[in-house]
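TL;DR need C-alpha cells for one chain.
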Amino acid sequence: MKRRFVKDYVSNQEGKERFRYVGNYYIFSMEQDRRNKRCVQQLIFALVQLILIVTAGFLNSPGSYKLYIVLPYLSMILPLLYYVMGSISFRKAPTRMQRHEYDVSIFRLMKSVLGLFFLSFFTMVGDTVFLVLEANVVQQKAEIVFYIIMIILMIMNYIALLAHNRMMKQVQEEQQEKQQNKD
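>> reply
TL;DR here they are.
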C-alpha cells in the first residue's frame, strides 16, 4: 500500500504530539463568503451534471447497449461523487493547508473535473463511432439526444476545467525548512 504523506511528518521527541508536520504548506487566500459562494456553485454544477447523466441513461438509446459507450458513461458517476466530496472539503479547508488538506480539497476538484471531461469525451467518441457504423439501424432521436447531452457535459467540464485551473494558479506553495532529527 502506498503511504503518500509519510515523508511530510517526523517524530517529535519532545511535546505532547507524537508527530509534527514538516512538509510544504499550500496557501489559498479567498474570503469565506466567496468560498461559500464558490462551494454552492460547485454543488449546483455537480447537480446539473448528475441530472444530465441520469437523463441520458433514461433515453434507452441503442448505443446504450454497447460496452464502449456504456463503460465510460457509467464511470462518470465516480468522479462526480469525488467532485462533491472535494467541494465540501474546499469549503472547510483552511487558508494555510497541509499537503493532505490541499489534496482532498482543491486538487481533488481539479482531478475530478479532468476525469469527467475525459470520460464524457470518450463516451462522445464511442457514440460517434456507433452513429457512423450503425447509421441505418439507429433510432436517430434518442441517440442524437444522448450525443448532444455528452457534448453539453464535455463543454461544461471544459469550462469548469478552465475555472479550476485559474483557481489552482492562486495557490502558493510555501517551502518549509526540513530539520534533521538529531538523536
